[in-house]
């Protein structure tokens, strides 16, 4: 599965703790992130993360584009609800695209735990079916 990790500054420590806790599970997947979040994850773990731009410089939009191309299976986005962000429209757009394409999205650590436990159990297999169907439609 392709999984995106994004954390606002005040949530980055939580994100690091989270990926350390689930490092073993995550090592079997392709990981993507916004710039600084990915840097923090790679410093704290042995995980390899494909880093996009930093959020305020377009990283949320790059991950949004992957969703629109059906290349993202899950988004873990630890949002800071108490701090205004200069790129708020990009954040809203990313969340909207998750809803448009029915991509599982966790915006806090409690939901993220449930999503990753589902991932461990194989609950995300339906994404492979959806991706397969999209590829078939594109090639016909
Ligand atoms: O701002 C962000 C998401 O909206 C996160 O970006 P960084 O991971 O580059 O800090």
From TrEMBL:
It catalyses: dihydroxyacetone phosphate = methylglyoxal + phosphate. The keyword Lyase applies. GO terms for biological process: methylglyoxal biosynthetic process. Substrate binds at residues 8, 12, 34-37, 54-55, 87. Keywords: Lyase. Residues 1-140 form the MGS-like domain. It comes from the Bacteria. Its EC number is 4.2.3.3. SUPFAM superfamilies: Methylglyoxal synthase-like. InterPro entries: Methylgl_synth (IPR004363), Methylglyoxal_synth_AS (IPR018148), MGS-like_dom (IPR011607), MGS-like_dom_sf (IPR036914). Catalyzes the formation of methylglyoxal from dihydroxyacetone phosphate. HAMAP family: Methylglyoxal_synth (MF_00549). This is Methylglyoxal synthase. The gene is mgsA.
